[in-house]
């Protein structure tokens, strides 16, 4: 009897099917024709039935469904190691956003995604779920690499690297879906970035687009505790009920992170068949916390595992993530029986496919599904020895003792992408060179920026161009009993625009004196009764030194930047890394006076137990400065100094 | 001018010295003569000064101090994957201890340690700190592999695989220290297992031995919250003060785990210069928790990182541990700036050396220290691209993006142990075969044991050989109003040994009916006022079926095992994995009677709203059983049944 001809026969492997019975074949085989699995079973049976053009002997290997990376931003591989160990806001507003604004274009997205695909194939990933910009470029890269991708075009209410408004992104996304949604490897998706970067209108349009084409909707949900707090403050409810009210769950949702969900939110998502993408490394590294995924699984949610982007991980190693996922449930929720290896491997494969709404295509080794397969060497020293008493020990071997680099061969859609650890679809050395070209430009940009406090300031206030300001000023100590009203009266002048305030100044002082000093100021303006009227925050970059000395402690100073401070003092301190920090608290009485037609501001400052008077005026030329210095000299004489 | 001749010159690497200035040389070099580093610096400088017999080009590599695995049980590599996802007691008493009791001998310790050394060298570890049995065998393996080892002979109050008492272990340890303490690679140590397996006498002897030879003392401290609770209950204080009272910290202590230390305990340890070995994977996997090591570091403690044994990890991958250590501090203590990459790499190298009290020898690349070095490829796809803006980015590359398999070459004590990922001191294929021989025996032992409920029971009660017991018994339903006193009086008998108790029975029922049923019984014995007098727990393995039926529901039953239950119901449930569990609660009035010179026990049981009478007697022969069945028949008649 003649045998049926197939394209590829994998033989003699320890076959882990991840099918509904979780069937295992200690000596198993898979037959592949075109892009589909046509048979799964014992090697002897399949060898008796099939003849293949290519036979791959998998002795000493595990044959498993390829891993599914349920959440990443592939192109961000180009930002790996750019900035680490920073608080989320410093990382995001200080580094990621300025660099993305400057560098994220078609080439960046294509090359970055190729780099990510190379890394993922090497670690046994066959499908990934992406969210980024210029997603058509990500699709081109994914197809070039031969991987399967659920690719979400980012939509958010702020201008982004690929759109000035969300209408533009939606339009791009519509075209992207139309172009790609029949491709055998690509599942396009709509990716509203997060609840806190959405409006109800925007969400409505995203859901409409996703349902029109029946594509998934990929978003971030409840990544941080702050997100939940803000949602509650703003909408009177946590994130999921707000999203449900805005009909988000009418789409096939893929929700990344879900670190801070209440049980009721999990139930809402379960009823809506929303998938969860758990990203343990990223959630730890950015200090977001640990998602209670065992609980989600117990409630019936489909939970996959994702690496998140390489900028916050810093790799796309699903073996690491899967092991970490298992470890964290046990260690953080105090029960070593939680997320056992078998369930963890399911999360990395079939449950990931379910979370991405593509389990009809992939996630397990079953007849009729696409041939997305990882062949993983299992007899390396670090995996040795093996115990056969419990057949399911193979899951512990995979999750707890196997490394990404143990993956030997990878097939996606019936096509070999890696064989004996050599990539077959990508020119890796050239890819690294292409990536380096971009990274070198980023490096140069940041090096220039970091070398200079002003440019570092500008990087986080992109819409603001500051001007230098010069002031001529004098500062003298006065007896403590002095009042500003008396001083002005004694000078025979009239005060106007008088105010009282407490000022909390923090000076950042840098090793390089020439760099200047940064001042973060909190101004608490009081009313006449001493009650707080308003608070405002300013950031000032002060010149490194006095520009010119006049007589009587009168000096010309320069401020190179002054603007309201949008971030917290902590943000600026961590972003600028000053060598030392100095704090000064003053109680300030302030007024303006006119003297010989020139306006001066007078500040009477109480600092600790001393009293100082400052007389100041803005200036714009050397001649004007000299003239004003003379006038200040006269005023000083008038008060006896 | 002629150059100085050295043995080995490492050139052109990114040199990470981990010296006190944390000096970095982007193109750096190390010169090695004999077993010592003779120069560290820029490649151009060293090439101008030295000529070497062996020059190793480290282009595209990082040259770092070798990693220091601060806590492991090397030989337990032979138990990797034996039992996973279990609670600590099930894992320990159900699997580890029975297997260790049976298999841990000289050959096990030698081969297991060699296997561990092979894995550790492959992942860049140059020094490890061990605690196990037959430690001289571990030393032989360590020297064979060429690694550096701080090797602690275990001492504990229970019989162990290598000693029947702690006196024996102490004697072994003394000889072990004498034999090895001048060896260039071995630092012998005294290893009292843990506070809860020590007595003050034993600790005193351990400290005396460690101080006599000035060797470290390696122990487990505060691994679990339970350990702290028990210590407080038993000694009125947490673990560290109790150990301090017993003078433990007079020795050079290396304390593994330290998950549940109070701040005062950290301060005590810091003052005593005790080192800490943080084992994040093991602490998560066994659900112990996360040690607050950033806090310990802030208090001045030296914290190294350890893998723990492969039975609870399941690998010895220090890259994984180091990354995890950094991630956990951030994620669990809510601050992404905690344990930044530079500090994490320090913990894996120089701080590890300090924790082990051997920083005069190793842990950094400095002139005069031993040449213990890892050369790590840094331009793989998963490590790409590189940014040079911040020279310290190299630490993030090492900690967050580099894998154990990126280690290219390893030197210990000036000798190459791995070159281009090939082990030079060990015959790896043969080693795997040797390990397999042992693992197959363990596998067969456990397979046999697991196939049989009785042998599985015996494995956890090694000091007890049960006997089969046969009982002849009848059980009849009676009206609810019946009292035992009335029944006995009506029969014209006298009751003795009467008691009242509540019984909570849990039956484990297995898929295989022939396996029998297990009963876990909690007996609450009441006094005449119905107050709780005492509670006891028994575990009974009941025969699969009734052995013989007599008339009138009189049956002969067989119990194959009955003993007091030392573990919790939860333990047994998780250890035996029954298919179903059935719970029965009864209120039992019990007494004994003598009828025709034969003793019977009578149980009047209230179960839910029904009342049953049991009449029972032990039996030992078919003839005796028939006779007693007849007597029971007469008694039943006497009560109208």
Total of helices of chain A: 20
Give the low-pLDDT segments of chain A: none
Number of strands of chain A: 26
CATH fold node name of the largest domain in chain A: TIM Barrel
Greatest contact between two chains: A-B, 80 and 80 residues
Topology (elements, then pairings):
Two copies of one chain form a homodimer.
Chain A: E1 4-16, E2 24-33, E3 36-42, H1 43-49, E4 50-57, E5 61-65, E6 67-72, H2 88-103, H3 106-122, E7 125-132, H4 135-145, E8 148-155, H5 166-180, E9 186-192, H6 200-213, E10 216-221, H7 225-235, H8 239-245, E11 252-257, H9 263-271, E12 275-278, H10 280-285, H11 293-298, E13 302-305, H12 318-332, H13 341-348, H14 350-355, E14 373-377, H15 393-401, E15 407-412, E16 415-419, E17 422-423, H16 428-450, H17 453-459, E18 469-478, H18 484-490, E19 496-509, E20 517-526, E21 532-542, E22 548-549, E23 554-564, H19 569-576, E24 580-595, E25 598-607, E26 610-619, H20 622-638
Parallel strand pairs in A: 1-4, 1-5, 6-7, 7-8, 8-9, 10-11, 11-12, 12-13
Antiparallel strand pairs in A: 1-2, 2-3, 5-14, 14-15, 15-16, 16-17, 18-23, 18-26, 19-20, 19-24, 20-21, 21-23, 22-23, 24-25, 25-26
Helix pairs in contact in A: 2-19, 3-4, 3-16, 5-6, 8-9, 12-13, 13-15
How would you characterize this protein structure?
The structure is a homodimer of 641-residue chains. With 641 residues, chain A is an alpha/beta fold. Chain A has three domains: 1-65 and 363-419, Urease, subunit C, domain 1, CATH 2.30.40.10; 67-358, Alpha-Beta Barrel (TIM Barrel); 459-638, Hypothetical Protein Pfu-838710-001, CATH 2.40.320.10. The first copy, chain A, contains 20 helices and 26 strands. In chain A, strands 1, 2, 3, 4, 5, 14, 15, 16 and 17 form a nine-stranded mixed β-sheet that branches. In chain A, strands 18-23-21-20-19-24-25-26 form an eight-stranded antiparallel barrel. The first copy, chain A, is elongated. Chain A starts with a strand and ends with a helix. Chains A and B meet through helix 3, helix 10, helix 12, helix 15 and helix 16 of A and helix 3, helix 10, helix 12, helix 15 and helix 16 of B.
